[in-house]
Prior knowledge:
The chain has helices at about 60-70, 75-85, 100-115, 130-140, 155, 180, 185-200, and strands at about 15-20, 35-45, 85-95, 125-130, 160-165, 165-170. It is α/β, with parallel strands linked by helices. The chain has one domain (about 5-200): Uracil-DNA glycosylase-like domain (Uracil-DNA Glycosylase, subunit E, 3-Layer(aba) Sandwich), CATH 3.40.470. A six-stranded mixed beta sheet has the order 1-3-2-4-6-5, with helices on both faces.
Amino acid sequence: MRVSGRVACEHFPCTDVRPAAYAIPGPNFDPAGIWMVMVSEAAAPDPADNYYARGNPLFQQTTVQAFNDAGVLVSSARDLTRLGVYLTTAVKCGKANAGLQPSTIEACSRLLETELGLFPHTRVLMLMGDVAIRAVNLIARRAGEPRVIPAQATYKLRGQSFYFRGMRVFPSYLQAGPAFFIEKSKRRMIAQDIAAAMQLMPSANH
Length: 206
């Protein structure tokens, strides 16, 4: 299944993103083999940096390092796919500025909702940063469900158990992009969150 063939933005209504940097994961995935979905903030400003771009893109580099920090030895996004991990973003275009408007996150959360529905066996949902957390809370609110993650600082939420439609949800910090190499304390917490999440994967029970 190609997610890019199932999820698409048709009208590009958002004014604070760059439609030229629009990206939906393009590889062919087996939905039955995906157990963890990791959602980060927005597509890379340069499409060559996105998770599944050719070569060794930046988002792949920082995410691979985050898993390695957690003791999960991988070297590529393809390795993560083999483990059952799918990587995506809450906002499908690259940011035009530093921040994102609430209306942009709301619009793209509709695409994310469709995307999550393509992987019915997901056990773990990792929300990497405030934008991803807000997007999933919006999905829940539209359905009349309680918010998934409380409105508190992420460091206060870590270690608690949250669930959404049968998935265990981990609120964490952004692991995609150059800031990952700078913010050492957050990097340690990301590694701890990934390690805890991996314990819920089917391979951890074998």
